[in-house]
Records
---
Amino acid sequence: MNAVELLRDLVRIPSESGKEDAVVARLEAAFKDLGWKAVRSGRNLHAFLGDGPGPLLLLNSHTDTVPVGANWTRGALEAEVSGGRIYGRGTNDAKGCLTAMILGAAAAFGKDAPRGRVCVAATCEEEINGKGLESLIAELPKPDAAVIGEPTGLQPAVAQKGLLLLEITAHGRSAHAAWGGGVNAVELSAKDVLALAGLKFETSHPTLGSPSVCVAQINGGTRHNVVPDRCVFVVDIRTTPDYAPEEIVEKVKALVKGEVSVRSKRLGAVATDPGHPIVRAALAANPGAAPYGSPTLSDWVFLKGVPTVKVGPGDSKRSHTPDEYLETAELEAGVGFYERLIRSYFAGAARA
Ligand SMILES: [Zn+2]
């Protein structure tokens, strides 16, 4: 099976989050062509390779993409190959990773199969932090290690920031703007926004650094001639494993006067011991690579307690952009990379 042609097929089938059925059907056919027993549950698809004994390694990437969006100069769903690049929505994020994982696993188990089992899983709704991998993982035996396929230039991410979303509401008292008086909630929020600059994190994670804080939205007042009695702003905090979300919430509460409510803390920070065999396998598969900490989310958040690396061909900065592409050379390097990673992981596990 040809990697470029499989990827082009996948890209030609639109698969915005929630609408992955057709692309899953194409993948099901690919699994069958490879002689794999494909198991479909909802819009997730997986197959087990190898019969053990030995550890279970999960290889996962996602089938959904963000919407095509504007400003493309190429067909977003045509998978045009030009100048060594394959263009189209999802080439880089993450159908290229998925294609490389499938063909890398097929190569590893094609001959001289390692002793151990791999589960290749193509899951839905990653771009909306939906129920794809989160629901599949509940149906699978617990993996001993996992690889999340996302475009990282084949550099292994060994930690990933989490997301804590807060809403901070100021309650004032309305009055006629011309007469004055009342308590202006927008002004109260303005003071709280500035007070957040005092949010300090003493502990810096070796690869992730400190949590980041961004006041991303603010909304107050209903009309120009009324002193606003309510203002709400949203704070996007990217967390590290050094701080529990509750701890950060307490720090925020100590700084602001408004009412703090947690909109989401479901997507926690995760990290893997850099000496774990799955990290060593990723480094062995790409000598010269360096482990790093990733600020962006992925389905890794749903693999708490499973040693994981996030790694794949492509460049995260091309994701979600017009004229998204993956180089054919990157795709082919990805296939070889995942094959070597699988072999190194099981060789290391056999020695351990
Ligand atoms: Zn992705």
---
Amino acid sequence: MSEGDDQVPAGGAPPDEDAAGSAPLPLRWVEELVNTRNVEDDTDEIATADALADWLRARRLLPAGASVTAAAHRRAVRVREGLRALIAANNPEPAAHPAGERQHPDGVDPEALADLAGLAHDLPLVLDVTGRPPRLVPRDPESVDVALARLLAAVAEAVADGTLDRLKACREPGCRWAYYDHSRNRSRAWCSMAVCGNRAKARAFRRRVR
Ligand SMILES: [Zn+2]
């Protein structure tokens, strides 16, 4: 990371000039995990198990000495795409696309969501009542799965405090960048109005003049 990297998301993502910042922690981990893959540029910050280990350690989600197996890496990637599908559902109004371009009416990938549902069975959370407030924690204290379970716990907490609705995946099919919608009426549809919003508008314009 060099100076100014916090201005531009990793992987050369669209400049986020209409963003007022990321999701609050721990939901931000979900946002950042989803954005390890830049759909538009086809780049992946956690393309290898070692890269995932670095990413998790940077967020103190993995102990210093722990490594990431190939199987755990594959699970993490699947959880990421499941979470992308989950938050895509928070961007409800379908974008207008030319026929055939759109795969799913609301940008939600049902297969990724079903996959996440299956994976969640193996990422058990229990209610820890010893702390204040009581919170969901991973049951198994070992491995990368703890980190993945903590991300799912973050989703549960965000449901409880009403912030999950604001974490969305960009409506632009070729983008799907995760962003936190700070707008008063929670109506922000694109990661960046200047890039993806204008792209959608230009498409709508081309259809009208055709
Ligand atoms: Zn976008």
